[in-house]
Specification:
Strands 1, 2, 3, 4 and 5 form a 5-stranded mixed β-sheet that branches. The protein has 1 helix and 5 strands; from the N terminus they run βαββββ.
Length: 80
């Protein structure tokens, strides 16, 4: 359901810290049957990477209609 004036965000936490490299692909994290739903229905997808219960990096995978196959450096932020 789309509501005018509101944006949707899907926030994921990667506790394995496996997906903290810029060359990772978002599609490796999301099962194939959900790819189209993410592309059409969700405005923002952000992966937060944590290690030993501490948040270390955030990766913006999708912003509005822009879906990144690889995360640009200016869409990664650090909590360190």
């Amino acid at each position: 359901m789309i509501v005018a004036g509101f944006a949707t965000a899907f926030l994921l936490e990667d506790i394995s810290s496996v997906h903290c490299d810029s060359g990772d692909h978002w599609s490796d994290l999301i099962p194939n049957q959900y790819h189209l739903k993410f592309q059409l229905n969700i405005d923002y997808v952000v992966i937060f990477v944590s290690h030993e219960d501490k948040m270390i990096v955030g990766n913006v995978w999708k912003e509005k209609s822009q879906l990144y196959s690889e995360i640009p450096d200016n869409r990664r932020f650090s909590f360190r």
